[in-house]
């Protein structure tokens, strides 16, 4: 190629079109145009591909060298948080505010009052699954953004972050310290003159979902950082902050830690917990809308387990009540209960499959169940195999193809898939 730079200048808008599309989707604003930050992200992706193929940098081809510090991400974050589509937000609010139930409306109004009156209150919404936590927080975020104010949404896990409009992980937004055990006075790696620092100074609200998973030192580090960024001695720098989660579910991970070790690093042991106002959502809307008494009883039973109201055996186990469900001892039994007559799957309606599922906590168990279900279905199967190779050819001698085929990395399918049409 005689002139890569000329090619880049001619087609960079086409090459970066997907990045622009993503930014528009994240902000619900179709009016955003190309910026240098978007082109810079395109150059980063392009250089990653070139380096993988030939271990060369773009500057060796006469192309602009991408800026690989956090500033490009920083700028995109600032662009997103300041360019939401106001008309779409107002339409969303008009459609959904009327759907709030009584207790959701109380939570909504309490938090909005704190923001509008600059009270800087800190809240924890205790919200068991199904009570509408995401619905309420999404409305609060939309309301504040519709007023051209800044509302930042973070979560302790990537999956939870995807459920919130504009959501990112707490680690990426706050640049949380990686080693929480070294320094109890640690702060986040944020510079005052960065765009993220500017956002946090201007923000009217922060929503932190699944906060119960977070180490207390991370929460305390954010507290110290916000005080510094906002030049305020108030808790969290005087910003209204809404924590949401459920302590009955996931707690911080302490490698090889005991129950006492886990409790010691929980959010409730944070230096800010004494300032937190507790709000609660009780009505399980998923169950309430179904009007099924059995589902209501099951939901209450789960809450009793989470609240420690169910007796525990000497070994630390909970004896599940007989009326909760059917007890099975083999994989075949659970398949027969969930998918009766699965041998005649081709004759089943699509809705029949949509109404049932087997859920398991471990990938190994999922593989065994999938294989067992597939064996019961009588249709022909097709076999598909992955092509596994080493990126660095010099290392191939140390990692035979058979070894690569045997790996089972999280989030990727197995090397060999046997698929049958219609199988769950």
Automatic annotation (TrEMBL):
Q: Which reaction does it catalyse?
A: ATP + H2O = ADP + phosphate + H(+)
What are the EC numbers?
5.6.2.3
The protein's GO terms of the molecular function aspect are: 5'-3' DNA helicase activity; ATP binding; ATP hydrolysis activity
Q: Which cofactor does it need?
A: Mg(2+)
Where is the DNA helicase Pif1-like DEAD-box helicase domain positioned along the sequence?
Answer: 99-314
Protein name from the UniProt record: ATP-dependent DNA helicase
Gene Ontology biological process terms from the UniProt entry: DNA recombination; DNA repair; telomere maintenance
Q: Which InterPro entries match?
A: DNA_helicase_pif1-like_DEAD (IPR010285), P-loop_NTPase (IPR027417)
> One Pfam family for this entry, by name?
PIF1
| Family, as annotated | Belongs to the helicase family.
Q: Which Gene3D superfamilies match?
A: P-loop containing nucleotide triphosphate hydrolases
Q: What keywords were assigned to this record?
A: ATP-binding, DNA damage, DNA recombination, DNA repair, Helicase, Hydrolase, Nucleotide-binding
